[in-house]
UniProtKB/TrEMBL annotation:
Keywords: Chaperone, Coiled coil, Stress response. It holds the Pfam family GrpE. This is Protein GrpE. It comes from the Bacteria. SUPFAM superfamilies: Head domain of nucleotide exchange factor GrpE (SSF51064). InterPro entries: GrpE (IPR000740), GrpE_head (IPR009012). GO terms for molecular function: adenyl-nucleotide exchange factor activity; protein homodimerization activity; protein-folding chaperone binding; unfolded protein binding. GO terms for biological process: protein folding. Residues 72-99 form a coiled coil. Participates actively in the response to hyperosmotic and heat shock by preventing the aggregation of stress-denatured proteins, in association with DnaK and GrpE. It is the nucleotide exchange factor for DnaK and may function as a thermosensor. Unfolded proteins bind initially to DnaJ; upon interaction with the DnaJ-bound protein, DnaK hydrolyzes its bound ATP, resulting in the formation of a stable complex. GrpE releases ADP from DnaK; ATP binding to DnaK triggers the release of the substrate protein, thus completing the reaction cycle.
Length: 220
């Protein structure tokens, strides 16, 4: 009798353990599913928040890029305008310097003309028969000094790219010469320059002063 009761108690205890084990497994699985649901929800929430932040940052970057582009365009436009102003200023300054230099060179050329005329007069000067030796030496010394000054002036003009126009023996060039007188000589070609009244000059290959010449004209 006692043994039967013991067997019944053991059987009931085993049933209880089986029920507890089943209950525990089901609860654990339910809890795991709940944790998974909670984790996925948090993940989606965080992803959504991250997406919003990324969009916000992208908009801010786009706005900043647009502002930077506008600023860059403004700076480039200002730089172009400044370059044009500097170029115009340099052009005006260079033109002013060129005009002033031409005026100065023109004055040097005038002095050169006067000296050349003086030297030519001394060359053609016929002293009296009774000219004193001292007077002759003074005249020759003056002539030599003027010729030296003329050579220096010619070198100065050449150093500034001022070149004399070679007119005598050349055909009249209307760009560099102006005919002041005409002679008639059938022995010489028509339109040839036979005399130079005033020497002409070029400055850097461009006309600085016209040459005044005497040209020949054949008589038919």
């Amino acid at each position: 009798m006692l043994q039967l009761q013991n067997e019944q108690l053991l059987a009931q205890f085993e049933d209880f353990l089986q029920q507890e084990e089943q209950f525990t497994s089901e609860n654990i699985e339910t809890l795991e599913n709940t944790d998974r649901q909670v984790d996925l929800y948090q993940l989606f929430s965080e992803l959504s928040a991250l997406k919003s932040e990324v969009k916000k940052d992208a908009r801010q970057q786009k706005d900043a890029l647009g502002q930077f582009t506008n600023l860059l365009d403004t700076l480039q436009g200002g730089n172009k305008q400044l370059s044009k102003e500097l170029e115009r200023h340099d052009t005006n300054r260079n033109n002013a310097v060129t005009r002033a230099k031409k005026d100065l060179l023109g004055e040097v050329i005038d002095i050169n003309d006067r000296l050349r005329a003086t030297v030519a007069s001394l060359h053609h000067f016929k002293p009296p028969l009774m000219e004193r030796k001292a007077s002759r030496e003074f005249r020759l010394g003056l002539q030599e000094g003027l010729e030296m000054t003329l050579r220096r002036l010619e070198l100065l003009l050449n150093s500034h790219e001022v070149i004399a126009v070679g007119a005598i023996g050349q055909t009249v060039d209307p760009y560099t010469m102006r005919v002041s007188e005409v002679v008639e000589d059938n022995k010489q070609p028509d339109g040839i320059v036979v005399e130079e009244i005033q020497r002409g000059y070029l400055y850097k290959g461009k006309l600085l002063r016209l040459a005044e010449v005497v040209a020949n004209k054949k008589v038919s």
